[in-house]
Structures are given as structure tokens and as C-alpha cells.
């Protein structure tokens, strides 16, 4: 498990960095990889970008992170949606974002892991498309960043949910 720690305002005065370092030491002693960063906004945006690129696609394909990140067709979709999410982050002023290739490599290294959205879909639970995708798309629109691939992925997930709901009603 990995938990990145950082301050929302890394330049603010105070002993918070020492407290974060102490907390990281405690977590590391418990077996949790807990690095401390001065670029927490970039870490959070990287996580959001990875989720928006992989979660909806996993619902559509039923595939694991490793499978999607190593298949040429799904890799291209992931890469294009990462580019859109990274462009949105850059438009927000986050300048230290991980490149798409590095995020794809992290996905491939995750192995045969099913995304939480795929697990929720299979269990019939509500999907996090609003928090993961719609919020990013709304921000991108406000900033004038086009997101055609992310829009398509979210639309296909919505279609799949409606289609499944229709089948349940006719059963």
C-alpha cells in the first residue's frame, strides 16, 4: 500500500513538515509506503488522471489495469485520456505532473488488478463517474480544454449502465 503525504500549502510557515515526516515514519514502520512530497497537488492530480483514464475503460472492457496498459488498443485510449487529464491539470497551474508514459507504466506494474469502478459495476453498486470523470470534464470545459476521449469513455459507461438497467427491467 502507498499513501503519499503532503501539505496543501507547502510554503506556509510552521512545523507541519516535521509532523508529516514523523507520521510517514510511523506508517513506514507499519509497512505502508508513505513518502512525503512538496508537490501533493501533482500527486493528487496524477491519481485523478490515472483513475479517469482507467476506471471507465475497465467497466467497458472488463479488463485489469495490467491488461489495459499492455494491450496496444486500450493503451492508446488510456494514453489519449491521460493527455487530456494532464492538459487540464496544467491549465489549473499544476506544473509538476507525471508524464503519461510513467502513469501507464504504473498501471502495467499493478498486475492483474481490477479497478474499484469495475468491481462496483460487477456488484451493481453506484459508480464514481461523477467524482472521477464528470468533475474533471466540467473543470476542463471551464478552462477551455477539450476532453473528447474522456467524454466518450464516460458516455459509454453511462450507456452500459442504462443498457444493464433495461435488461434487469425486462427480466
UniProtKB/TrEMBL annotation:
Domain Ketopantoate reductase C-terminal: 40-158
Annotated Pfam families: ApbA_C
Protein name per Swiss-Prot or TrEMBL: Ketopantoate reductase PanE/ApbA-like protein
SUPFAM superfamilies: 6-phosphogluconate dehydrogenase C-terminal domain-like
Stored Gene3D superfamilies: N-(1-d-carboxylethyl)-l-norvaline Dehydrogenase, domain 2
Domain of life: Bacteria
Matches recorded under InterPro entries: 6-PGluconate_DH-like_C_sf (IPR008927), 6PGD_dom2 (IPR013328), KPA_reductase (IPR013752), KPR-Related (IPR051402)
UniProt GO cellular component terms: cytoplasm
Amino acid at each position: 500500500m502507498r499513501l503519499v503525504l503532503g501539505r496543501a500549502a507547502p510554503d506556509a510557515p510552521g512545523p507541519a513538515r516535521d509532523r508529516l515526516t514523523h507520521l510517514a515514519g510511523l506508517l513506514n514502520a507499519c509497512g505502508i509506503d508513505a513518502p512525503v512530497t512538496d508537490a501533493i497537488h501533482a500527486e493528487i492530480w496524477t491519481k485523478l488522471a490515472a483513475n479517469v483514464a482507467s476506471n471507465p475503460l475497465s467497466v467497458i472492457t472488463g479488463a485489469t489495469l495490467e491488461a489495459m496498459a499492455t494491450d496496444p488498443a486500450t493503451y492508446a485510449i488510456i494514453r489519449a485520456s491521460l493527455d487530456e487529464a494532464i492538459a487540464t491539470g496544467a491549465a489549473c497551474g499544476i506544473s509538476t505532473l507525471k508524464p503519461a508514459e510513467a502513469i501507464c507504466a504504473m498501471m502495467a506494474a499493478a498486475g492483474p488488478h481490477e479497478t474499484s469502478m469495475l468491481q462496483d459495476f460487477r456488484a451493481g453498486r453506484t459508480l464514481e463517474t461523477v467524482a472521477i470523470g464528470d468533475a474533471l470534464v466540467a473543470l476542463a470545459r471551464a478552462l477551455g480544454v477539450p476532453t473528447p476521449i474522456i467524454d466518450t469513455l464516460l458516455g459509454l459507461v453511462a450507456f452500459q449502465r442504462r443498457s444493464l438497467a433495461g435488461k434487469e427491467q425486462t427480466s
